[in-house]
Design goal:
Layout (H helix, E strand, L loop, with lengths): L14 E5 L1 H10 L7 H4 L15 H4 L17 E10 L7 E14 L3 E12 L4 E13 L23 E6 L4 H5 L12 H6 L9 H16 L7 E8 L8 E9 L2 E7 L5 E10 L2
Antiparallel strand pairs: 1-3, 2-5, 2-7, 3-4, 4-5, 6-8, 7-10, 8-9, 9-10
Length: 279
């Protein structure tokens, strides 16, 4: 059967995920952190307790969503459209969560279907919610079923100069490091599979670019303190190739920050970014 528009509102079974110090270190390395960020890349540096990058929520959470109830679609034609996280507490270096998720919306974009999934993760050590995740999957070839297109998001790039700007260069082998945190989609490692998806070579995980962007936000507007990081939402507008340079531009207004991420050619790769933080 094709994609099932009637799946909106369906929930999945709760799923559990545990992690340890090594997992948190590997994630940090996977999104480009290094010797200047030892709080995130080491666990035994003098007077530097290990902490966790807030965007690690994207690899720990998101569980319990019922992708199996969507119907059938070609996974090679699926793209990650947008991602959001909401931190309700600081992620510890090790722990276990239980996540429950549901299909929040399915929109008809004509040549594709846009599927929104939401998930909430509870810290089993405290019994309290730790974070929430929201993701949009763009299923090429699955539109045209007669559904609504969905609401248009209102976001405008500020006309003034940005308040902060950071540049990071991704490694050519960045996807091979990032995939060790759990996303083994061959689109990011197998040249033959990437060609099936219409790409000349494997592309960088969208969530890896998201992690690079989250690092820039953390250090620029939160002073490197994950406890001040509240939420982050962005739309993936163009694939990133391994080895690309990423420039993150940020505009701060109170406890809100708008952001965009662009590549070395000036093309925007993460758009309509909104982040909240504690002042």
């Amino acid at each position: 059967m094709p994609i099932n528009p009637e799946a909106v509102g369906l929930s999945g079974k709760p799923s559990r995920r545990s992690w340890n110090s090594k997992d948190a270190l590997l994630y940090a390395l996977g999104v480009g952190a290094g010797v200047d960020e030892l709080a995130f890349t080491t666990e035994n540096t003098s007077e530097t307790p290990q902490r966790v990058l807030p965007t690690m929520a994207v690899v720990l959470g998101g569980g319990g969503v019922p992708f199996d109830k969507l119907g059938t679609f070609n996974p090679a034609l699926m793209l990650h459209g947008a991602q959001g996280i909401e931190l309700l507490d600081e992620i510890p270096p090790e722990g276990e969560i239980e996540s429950t998720g549901s299909i929040a919306a399915i929109w008809d974009k004509g040549k594709a279907a846009s599927v929104e999934m939401v998930s909430e993760s509870v810290n089993l050590a405290t019994g309290k919610p730790l974070f929430r995740t929201r993701m949009t999957a763009f299923l090429r070839g699955e539109g045209g079923f007669g559904g609504e297109r969905g609401p248009a998001r209102s976001w405008e790039r500020p006309s003034r100069a940005c308040d902060h700007e950071l540049r990071y260069t991704t490694r050519v082998d960045q996807p091979l490091i990032y995939r060790l945190s759990g996303d083994r989609n061959p689109l990011h490692s197998d040249p033959a599979f990437a060609k099936l998806g219409g790409f000349e070579r494997p592309i960088l995980h969208g969530l890896c670019s998201y992690g690079f962007t989250g690092r820039a936000l953390l250090h620029s507007v939160c002073g490197g303190d994950p406890g001040r990081f509240r939420s982050m939402d962005g739309r993936f507008s163009k694939p990133v190739m391994p080895g690309d340079e990423l420039t993150i531009s940020m505009w701060v207004d109170g406890e809100n920050c708008l952001f965009q991420t662009s590549n070395q050619d000036g093309a925007v790769v993460i758009d309509q970014g909104v982040m909240r933080f504690a002042a």
